[in-house]
Amino acid sequence: MNLFRNFSIKTRLLVAFLLSVAFPITVYTYIVLSKVEVGLHTIIFLGIVSILIAIMSAILVSTSVIAPIFLIINALQTFQTKKSAAVLRDNGDDEIAEVSAELNRIFADWNREIVSLGKKQFLQEKEYEKSQYQISLAEQQLIQTRSLLTAARLLNTTFDFQTNLKTILDEAVRSLNVQWASILLINREKNEMTVACVRGMEQSLLDTLEEDDYPSVRLKPHEGLAGFVIKEGLPLIANKGCKDPRFKHFNEFKDKDNKIAGLLCAPISDSEGNVLGVMNFVNRIVPPVFRNEDLAYVSDLCLLASLVIERNRMYTNLFTDIDTGLTAHNVWKGYLSEESARSIRYAQNLTLVVFEIDNFKNIAAETNNDFIDNILKNCGKSLSTLLRETDKASSVQERFFCMLPNTEISGGVFFAGRVKELIEAEALAFSGKKYELTLSAGIACYPMNVNEPNLLLKASLKALSKAKEQGGNKAALYTQEK
Questions:
Q1: What is the pTM for the complete model shown?
Q2: Cis omega before residue 287 (within 30°)?
Q3: Which is it for strands 399-405 and 350-357: parallel, antiparallel or unpaired?
Q4: pLDDT tens, position by position, for the chain (482 residues)?
Q5: Which of left, alpha, beta for 432 (phi over 0: left; psi -120 to 50: alpha)?
Q6: CB within 8 Å of 427: residues ≥ 6 apart
Q7: How far is CA 10 from CA 23, 61, 286, 331, in A?
Q8: DSSP H helical segments within 156-191, as ranges?
């Protein structure tokens, strides 16, 4: 069929016409010139042959024209329905082939436009996604900046170490959208890390882990992901969580460990670059993984934590007695003045209890400074365990001053009994000799037996002298002189 397509449609029609008339003309001329007699049947047969030749010529010509036209029609219909411009494969050399070639050029232009539009749309979508990501990132940075400012503002409202650590972790949990977070600090003397604070949205993951139980979770500075962070001094993202080969598992916390799906651990360093501990963030909720974009915010949180740690050390050095760990006496006097004014303003009770170690000078003469320091340290530690958050205690040599706000005189007596019981239960030995400590105590309370709170200190010291005059190892109440 392609053989006919090498000629124009006009030529094919002319050839078909000539074929249709050439046979009967040739036969007729032959009969006339040869004067051959032809019967009716022969004439009918020749007529039928002529008709068949004409029909065959018409079929061949029409097929060579209609077939490529149908291809063009199908291509146009496909383009109309599917918007898909397929290439027309026409090997002919006629007018229809020219139409096919023109359509192929049109389709090629269309495809180029579609591809160009597709690329433009793809680039626009990418730019849109990029802009949306930048907006989201900027919004997240704004939230995190506000979070840091909020934490910094709250840190200036109190010097309490635990409160400040909780403030930092609460802001971190809220801004990073994690299930829980913790701070582990390095104890250089024991060469281990202990959990200083844990906060989280998913309290069930903490189970029975209360603040008093934090020290039971201990790590060596070279163990686990925290040890890796301390060694390298750089933050680490472990989105495999407990499945990370560097993760340290504890048998007693196996159930909790298995719930850790992702973890971000960052070092807490001081101004000289020494690592003080690490800050852990567990199980990011949205998005479900930690990203590098989180590291800047986490580093700022670690900086705040290091400032809190350094400030706590400075506060301890400035306002805490080195020997006993109690509040420095001059600072304690300031607290006493504040509480005295508050007790007058709000008509509240204020009790003062002063303890003194009996026979302290004799013990000091028989032992040495290290033993005396150990006694004072143990007494301060025991006393601290019995103080409420609002209570304040200090020491001057063998005397311990305890201020108990909003406490009646009976509460002061009960407190004195508990302190005596706790301290006197300890037996210390020096050079094979055991020393059993006893305490004398003086108790005064405003307004129950002291008319003015600024007289409490003097009154409690008089009560202490009374207890010592009666042989010591007892508590005495202040009685007003008549």
A1: 0.56
A2: yes
A3: antiparallel
A4: 555 666 677 777 787 778 778 878 887 787 778 877 777 887 788 788 888 888 888 888 787 777 777 787 887 887 778 777 777 777 777 777 777 778 878 877 888 888 888 889 989 999 999 898 888 878 888 888 888 888 888 888 887 888 899 999 999 998 899 998 999 998 877 788 888 888 885 544 444 444 444 444 566 777 788 888 988 999 999 988 888 888 876 655 555 656 788 999 999 999 888 999 999 999 998 888 999 989 999 999 999 999 999 988 887 777 788 778 888 888 899 989 999 999 999 899 999 999 999 999 998 888 898 888 888 998 998 898 899 888 999 999 899 999 999 999 999 999 999 999 998 888 788 888 888 899 999 999 999 989 898 999 999 999 999 999 999 999 999 987 65
A5: left
A6: 434, 435, 436
A7: 21, 10, 75, 118
A8: 161-176
171 Cβ neighbours under 8 A, 6+ residues apart: 147, 148, 150, 151, 301
Is 104 buried (19+), middle (13-18) or exposed (0-12) by CB count in 10 A?
A: middle
Element (H, E) at 283: strand 275-284
The answer to whether 186 and 267 are in contact (CB under 8 A) is no
**Which amino acid appears at position 265 of this protein?**
C
Tokens matching residue 73:
């029609």
Cβ(464)–Cβ(440) under 8 Å? yes
